[in-house]
């Protein structure tokens, strides 16, 4: 895997990352650090990438388990060290799975498999951060029936 990160110029702290797959990601710094707040901070991109990595796993595992899912969100909240290097010290992953008759034990299993075996990003970050995981299931059949009433 490769990536090239390029500073966009002499003013500001905006960077463009071109991934090995040919996609562009823009990052910027906070105004107090010379940035202009035009894009996410690099550490926000790390957190978002971790969320994407684990959500991908959970969806794949649930589909392979025969679950009828329509959506999967993961809301990440984190804390960082106060002094440099300001690594993540705590990360909570809250999954919201939407589907029809989704089994709670299979969601729990999918999350566990992602975080213990498949999600490279969260496994790497757990070296510095205390990880916690919660989830909820929104049954689309129940939600549809309630809306029709």
* Strand order in the largest sheet: 1-2-3
Structural class category: alpha+beta
Overall spatial form:
elongated
The name of the CATH superfamily of the largest domain reads K homology (KH) domain
Question: What's the mean pLDDT score?
Answer: 94
The share of residues in extended strands comes to: 25-35%
Organism: Keguizhuia sedimenti
Protein name: OsmC family protein
Pfam family, one: OsmC
Key traits:
2 domains, OsmC/Ohrsf, OsmC family protein, 36% helix, 3-stranded mixed β-sheet, 6 strands, GMP Synthetase, Chain A, domain 3, KH_dom-like_a/b, OsmC/Ohr_fam
Overview of the structural elements:
- The protein is an alpha+beta fold and 149 residues long.
- It has two domains: 3-33, no CATH class; 42-148, GMP Synthetase, Chain A, domain 3 (2-Layer Sandwich).
- Helices cover 36% and strands 34% of the residues.
- The protein has helices at residues 42-64, 104-118, 120-125, 140-148; strands at residues 3-7, 15-19, 24-27, 68-80, 88-100, 130-139.
- It has a three-stranded antiparallel sheet, with no helix packed on it.
- A hairpin with a 7-residue loop joins strand 1 and strand 2.
- The protein is elongated.
- The N and C termini lie far apart (52 Å).
- The relative contact order is 0.14.
- The model has no long low-confidence stretch (mean pLDDT 94).
- It holds the Pfam family OsmC.
- This is OsmC family protein.
């Amino acid at each position: 895997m490769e990536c090239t990160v390029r500073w966009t110029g002499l003013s500001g702290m905006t960077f463009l990352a071109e991934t090995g797959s040919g996609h562009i990601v823009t990052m910027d710094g906070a105004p107090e650090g010379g940035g202009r707040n035009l894009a996410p901070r690099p550490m926000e991109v790390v957190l978002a990438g971790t969320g994407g990595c684990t959500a991908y796993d959970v969806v794949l595992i649930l589909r392979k388990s025969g679950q009828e899912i329509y959506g999967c969100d993961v809301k990440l909240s984190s804390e960082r060290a106060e002094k440099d290097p300001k690594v993540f010290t705590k990360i909570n992953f809250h999954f919201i799975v939407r589907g029809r008759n989704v089994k709670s034990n299979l969601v729990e299993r999918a999350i566990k498999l992602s975080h213990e075996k498949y999600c490279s990003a969260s496994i790497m970050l757990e070296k510095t951060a205390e990880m916690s995981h919660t989830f909820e299931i929104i049954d689309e059949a129940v939600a549809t029936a309630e809306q029709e009433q």
